[in-house]
Design brief:
The complex is a heterodimer of chains A (277) and B (280). Chain A is an all-alpha fold. Chain A is built from 13 helices and no strands. In chain A, helix 3 packs antiparallel against helix 4 (63-86), helix 4 (63-86) runs parallel beside helix 8 and helix 12 runs antiparallel to helix 13 (237-269). The chains are: A mainly alpha (277), B mainly alpha (280). The A-B interface holds A 33, 35-36, 39, 42-43, 46-47, 49-51, 53-60, 64, 94-95, 176-178, 181, 184-185, 187-189, 191-192, 196-199, 202-203, 276 and B 22-23, 31, 34-35, 38-39, 41-43, 45-51, 57, 60, 64, 91-92, 174, 176-177, 179-180, 182-183, 186-187, 189-190, 195-197, 200-201, 280.
């Protein structure tokens, strides 16, 4: 009777329990492992610091330092999406966890959502620290009136960004050694296209428009317009916010479709259990 | 000697294969240049946004692009090399066999580092070509001072290899040090004068940076390629004096690297780091 009850757990309950279970190590283990804490914060900080010094070398107005600090904070999220979402199934396959996901009664979506929520929480704390320390150190001030709308845009951007991460995770399901190189290859070009260190306006309509496929491009530009008055306008912040909001269901839907397709292909090709590729 | 050379050549071939055979050659070339070209474009846009591409500031653009182009050697030689050695141990479990082979572990490491530097050379050339064509930098291959460029690069490669080998031996002590080579390369980025003159750094840090061979190497590369038409970090000293400083800094790096290598190697053997199970 008890055993029967155990097996009668609703799929929805399993789905939510999966989310919590997968988010748990992202929140707890990520803070327990001090080297990761250092790595997650040092990389964006050092990158941003280099760009701040470039602007100082060019005798740029102080406002540009604000662009860089905000870009550095967002870089922490993009790093996380690339290495801890997109490439994660590849690592999981290497250490044998992926096959456990497949034979458990849950779904890949639940696992990915758990990873995303856990990561969002952890990286937000780290990005907040980068923003705070960078702003205090370089004396950057923000428009107080834009804070609440900027937080709203930020949350929408995160949701869209991690849905994109879920889509990439499904695409990377097939890759072995290539996953590392693909994540690496997507780093600097996206840093350029999303205008992490300069206003997106400078890229022009065509390049900036194409770069808008990455939610960080529009989200970051909208937040800059709200918090750093005088930011050259690429698209008005309201329109950018709507576009980012529209990207959330699109990327989520594409991630679901892609996951189903890639999973069935991976089963057929025996790719779910391949190791040491 | 013959055996050492054969071993060195095998290490170079192995390094090249591990770096490149995960994809087709053309895709590998595209992958290799994506990062430095993107980096150069980021700096070019930042420069344009601030200066409006004014003629008087063009020497500074040349400074940025040449620094970024040659940075590929550090990116590959330090970051990718350290990752490669950690992968050999944690992912492929072959580091212990390389260590036990009769050719001598340092030769193996130098061979692996050589392959990394060789693969960076293509991206250096491509970034310079893109800089010349797209950003209208005044680079003329017939006017480059090749002896100065080659001498500077050879000295820099010696110090990069010494530094990278020592760093990877230090990183072997950690179970989860994957990515630290990248962080170290980023730190060097700050202290090398690759994208801003080291005089921008606060006083004591600028002094520390002046002990490194990297600012002198990059200064000589810039002078060799665009003598007089590029922003100079050390305008008051001659090419010969910069070369001399590079020589002294390289000798210091090699000496320090040698002692640290001996120390970390002994420690790695004593504590079993060479074949330690890392959490890959």
């Amino acid at each position: 009777m008890i055993a029967e009850q155990r097996f009668n757990v609703s799929p929805l309950r399993i789905f939510f329990k999966t989310i919590v279970a997968r988010a748990y190590p992202r929140v707890v283990a990520a803070n327990r492992q001090k080297t990761w804490l250092f790595f997650d914060m040092a990389f964006p900080v050092v990158g941003a610091l280099a760009m701040v010094l470039v602007y100082q070398g060019l005798h740029a107005p102080r406002q540009y330092l604000g662009f860089v600090i905000m870009g550095g904070a967002m870089l922490a999220f993009w790093q996380n999406v690339l290495w801890s979402m997109a490439a994660q199934f590849s690592w999981d396959r290497g250490n044998g966890t992926l096959e456990l996901y497949v034979i458990s009664p849950t779904t890949f979506e639940g696992v990915l959502l758990g990873m995303a929520l856990g990561s969002m929480f952890t990286v937000t704390l780290r990005a907040g620290a980068i923003l705070l320390v960078g702003s205090l150190f370089f004396g950057i001030t923000y428009a107080a009136g834009g804070t609440l709308p900027a937080i709203g845009v930020f949350l929408l951007t995160l949701a869209a960004l991690y849905c994109l991460g879920m889509l990439l995770a499904s695409l990377f399901l097939f890759y072995g050694r290539e996953a590392w190189h693909l994540s690496n290859a997507m780093q600097e070009p996206i840093n350029f296209l999303s205008g992490l260190y300069f206003p997106v306006h400078a890229l022009g309509a065509y390049v900036g428009g194409a770069a808008s496929l990455v939610p960080m491009t529009l989200g970051l530009d909208a937040m800059r317009q709200l918090l750093l008055p005088g930011t050259p306008v690429f698209i008005p912040a309201g329109t950018e916010t709507l576009l980012v909001a529209a990207q959330i269901p699109i990327f989520a839907l594409l991630a679901g479709i892609s996951l189903r397709y890639m999973e069935s292909r991976a089963r057929a090709d025996g790719k779910l259990v391949t190791r040491w590729e | 000697m013959g055996r050492q050379l054969t071993g060195y050549a095998a290490a170079v071939r192995l390094g090249w294969a591990v770096s490149s055979n995960w994809t087709r050659p053309l895709l590998f070339v595209v992958y290799s240049v994506l990062r430095p070209i993107s980096m150069a474009l980021i700096l070019a846009v930042m420069y344009t946004v601030v200066t409006g591409n004014a003629a008087a500031t063009r020497p500074y653009l040349a400074f940025l692009i040449i620094g970024t182009a040659f940075w590929s050697f550090i990116q590959e030689g330090v970051s990718e090399f350290a990752t490669g050695i950690l992968e050999d141990r944690g992912r492929y479990h072959i580091l212990k066999y390389s260590y036990m082979a009769p050719l001598g572990f340092p030769i193996f490491l130098v061979g692996r580092a050589t392959s990394k530097l060789a693969s960076a050379a293509a991206s250096v050339v491509i970034v310079l070509v893109v800089g010349t064509v797209a950003l209208h930098l005044d680079i003329d291959p017939l006017r480059i001072n090749y002896p100065l460029l080659v001498a500077a690069c050879l000295l820099a490669f010696v110090s990069v290899i010494a530094f990278a080998i020592t760093l990877s031996m230090v990183l072997l002590a950690g179970k989860d040090t994957h990515g630290y080579g990248e962080i170290m390369a980023q730190f060097l980025y700050l202290f090398s004068g690759a994208i801003f003159p080291i005089s921008v750094l606060p006083g004591p840090i600028a002094w520390l940076a002046s002990l490194s061979p990297l600012p002198y190497w990059l200064e000589l590369c810039r002078r060799a390629i665009l003598h007089g038409r590029v922003y100079q970090m050390f305008p008051e000293i001659s090419d010969t004096e910069v070369l001399l400083r590079l020589l002294v800094a390289t000798a210091g790096t090699v000496l320090l690297g040698y002692f640290l290598y001996r120390l970390t190697d002994r420690r790695a053997r004593r504590l079993g780091y060479i074949d330690m199970e890392a959490n890959w």
